[in-house]
Each structure stands twice: as structure tokens, then as C-alpha cells.
Design brief:
The protein is built from 8 helices and 5 strands. It is an alpha+beta fold.
């Protein structure tokens, strides 16, 4: 009987050790998962210092004229681009933190005739002082409502309201000011080598894409702005 009790006790102890090992292993997995999630979620897995070629590209053969020494950031985008729509709320949040010495502009791209109509529509809204109230509406109309805007009249009819009559929109749409801005935007798109949107351009010198995610892109923009700020201070008399 003593032998049976000893054997039983050893068996119980062995089972307990196995159970503890399994629980310990599971615990390590949980801790590892939590740490990894935090690591990735905070961006700590990415390089702390942005690198040319992986985080941004230096725009070749660009002469930057900045007589007032004002920092600039541009977002190249299109209302037709769903990635631009998804990026827009993150961008808007980031803009609330933008220092006062930085000038921000959106530049609509015209990779096709259809995109050209939307780019012209953007500048028409800007000229009509109706951009803030209709910027999101354009994204939603296309990507949530399935709208196709093949010409200015289609946009005008969609936006027609007491605040923005269709006739007022079309006057802006067909204006010389809007056509000049559209031409300048097309030239800037070619000059900066934009091939995909959304893409950020910093100080006319650096192209920042979204390959590493929107949050990383904006971190890189902040970094490049600081580099330019230091450079400007060093050049100051």
C-alpha cells in the first residue's frame, strides 16, 4: 500500500509540473502578444530616424524658391482616390497640430480626364469659398454614394443649394483663375514626380508616400520640417 501511495503522489506531482509548465507557456504567449501589439501600435517597430529611400524620397532636379523662408507642406490627392478619403481624417487631426510657421496646401492631381474634372471642381469650390463645407461631401458622394462626376455640371447639380447655387459653382469652375490653378497643379505634379496619391511634399524637396502607413508618413513630415527649420536658421544672417 505504501508503494501505491508513493507512486500516486509522484504521478500527481508530475501532472502538476506539466500543468504549471503549460500555464507558464501560455502566460508568456499572452505577454508576448501584448508587448508586440504595443510595440507595433506605437510605431516603435519602425526606424526612429526616417531614412531616405525607405521613408521618403529626395525630389531630383528641383529648384526651390522660397524668398520669405516659409516652410511648406503639400498633399497631392484626388477625390477619386479612396486612400485619400481614408487618409483625410488623420490628416485633418494632424493639421490641428501644425506649427504657425508652416504653410499647408492641397494639390489635386489629374492623372486622367475624369480626375481632371474633380481637380477643377476642387479649385472651383476654393474660389467660391465653399471648400470647407463641401470637401468631405465630394469624397462621400463618390465613395459612399457611387456618384460619377464626368463634368462640371454634374458636380454643380449635386452641390446645388441656397449656399452654393449651381450657377455660382459653374462660374467659378469655368473661370480663368481656376484654369490657371489647374495648370499650375498639373505642372507641380509632374515637377515633383508624383505617381500615386496621397503623397506629401515637404519644402518642395521631399516626397513622402504612404507605403509605411499614414501615421508614419506624418511622423516623417514632422521630421523633415524640423530638418528644414534647422537649415533655415543656419542660413539666417
Amino acid at each position: 500500500m505504501a508503494t501505491k501511495k508513493t507512486s500516486s503522489a509522484k504521478s500527481t506531482a508530475g501532472v502538476e509540473r506539466v500543468r504549471n509548465l503549460i500555464l507558464g507557456f501560455v502566460g508568456l504567449l499572452v505577454v508576448g502578444f501584448v508587448v508586440t501589439t504595443f510595440y507595433l501600435g506605437t510605431g516603435l517597430s519602425q526606424n526612429s530616424v526616417p531614412e531616405a529611400g525607405s521613408d521618403y524620397e529626395v525630389i531630383a532636379d528641383v529648384t526651390v524658391a522660397n524668398p520669405v523662408r516659409r516652410l511648406t507642406v503639400e498633399e497631392y490627392f484626388s477625390y477619386a482616390c479612396v486612400h485619400c478619403k481614408n487618409f483625410d481624417p488623420t490628416l485633418e487631426d494632424w493639421l490641428t497640430t501644425l506649427p504657425k510657421d508652416v504653410n499647408f496646401n492641397r494639390v489635386p492631381t489629374a492623372f486622367s480626364r475624369a480626375w481632371g474634372v474633380l481637380a477643377q471642381g476642387y479649385f472651383a469650390l476654393e474660389k467660391a469659398n465653399a471648400l470647407d463645407s463641401h470637401h468631405q461631401s465630394m469624397f462621400k458622394a463618390i465613395h459612399n454614394g457611387g456618384r460619377v462626376f464626368s463634368n462640371g455640371e454634374a458636380i454643380a447639380d449635386y452641390l446645388d443649394s441656397p449656399d452654393l447655387p449651381a450657377a455660382d459653382f459653374m462660374r467659378a469652375f469655368d473661370s480663368r483663375d481656376v484654369m490657371r490653378k489647374l495648370n499650375r497643379a498639373e505642372q507641380a505634379t509632374r515637377r515633383t514626380g508624383i505617381e500615386a496619391v496621397p503623397t506629401m511634399v515637404v519644402a518642395g524637396k521631399y516626397r513622402v508616400g504612404m507605403d509605411n502607413g499614414a501615421e508614419r508618413a506624418l511622423q516623417v513630415v514632422d521630421y523633415l520640417l524640423e530638418q528644414e527649420r534647422v537649415l533655415m536658421q543656419g542660413e539666417a544672417p
